[in-house]
Amino acid sequence: MKFILGKKIGMTQIFNKEGKVEPITLVEAGPATVTQVLTNEKNGYSSVQLGYGRKKLNSPQRGHLKDFVDKKGSGFAYLKEFRIDDESKFKKGDILDVAQFEMGERVSASAVMKGKGFQGVVKRWNFKGGPKTHGQKHTLRTPGSIGSAFPQRVFKGLKMAGRMGGKRKTVKNLKVVYIDKERNMVGLRGAVPGNTGSFVEVVKNGK
C-alpha cells in the first residue's frame, strides 16, 4: 500500500504520448515524515501516522511531536493515519516522497470540498425548478411539495436546501500521469476535491 500527504496546487493540462490533451490536477506530494508507528500489540491495530506542512503548535501538539518541533515551536500542520498490514516496513522518522509512485498507477485522492454556504435545491441537488411562465410567480427555484397526505411528516433525508460543501470527499481511480521527483509533484488525471492549497491524501491500495 502506497500513501502520501500533499497540497493541491491546481489544475492544468498536458499532452500524452498520443498527442491528446489530458486534464490533470497537480499535487505537491510530500516529503511526508513518519511521526508514529502504531502496532497490534500496543495499540490494537497497525497504522502509520504521517506529518506534513509546518505551523505553530500548541502545547499538547508539541508534546506529541516533540522529536519534530523546532526552536520556535513549529511542527507538522497536518497529521493523518494510514492503516497498514506490516508495521515492520516503517519506522519513526522515515521520509516518504513521490518516488514510491509509478506512471499509470491508479490512486484515490481525499480532501475537504470547497464550502459553498447555504444553497437552494437547484444548486445543491440539481433540481430543475418550476416554469417561468403560465401563472407562476417567484417559484422558479423553489423545491415544490415536501410532504404527502400520509404520513403527516417530512421523511428524513429529503433533498432540501441547506449547507453545501465543506465535507470530506474521496475521488477514486485517478490515474497518475505526471511525476516530478525534484519538485515533489504528482499529476492526477481528473479533478481533486478542495481549494487550491488544501491538504490532500493520496492512496494507492494494494502492495
Automatic annotation (TrEMBL):
Q: Which GO terms describe its biological process?
A: translation
Q: Which UniProt keywords apply?
A: Ribonucleoprotein, Ribosomal protein, RNA-binding, rRNA-binding
Any one GO MF term held by the record is:
structural constituent of ribosome
Keyword RNA-binding in the entry? The reply is yes
Q: Which Pfam families does the record associate with it?
A: Ribosomal_L3
Gene Ontology terms: cellular component: ribonucleoprotein complex; ribosome
- InterPro entries xref list: Ribosomal_uL3 (IPR000597), Ribosomal_uL3_bac/org-type (IPR019927), Transl_B-barrel_sf (IPR009000)
Annotated TM spans: none
UniProt KW Ion transport keyword: no
Read off the HAMAP family from this record. Answer: Ribosomal_uL3_B
- Please give the subunit comment from the record: Part of the 50S ribosomal subunit. Forms a cluster with proteins L14 and L19.
Functional note: One of the primary rRNA binding proteins, it binds directly near the 3'-end of the 23S rRNA, where it nucleates assembly of the 50S subunit.
Q: Which family does it belong to?
A: Belongs to the universal ribosomal protein uL3 family.
Q: What is this protein called?
A: Large ribosomal subunit protein uL3
> What is the name of the gene encoding this protein?
rplC
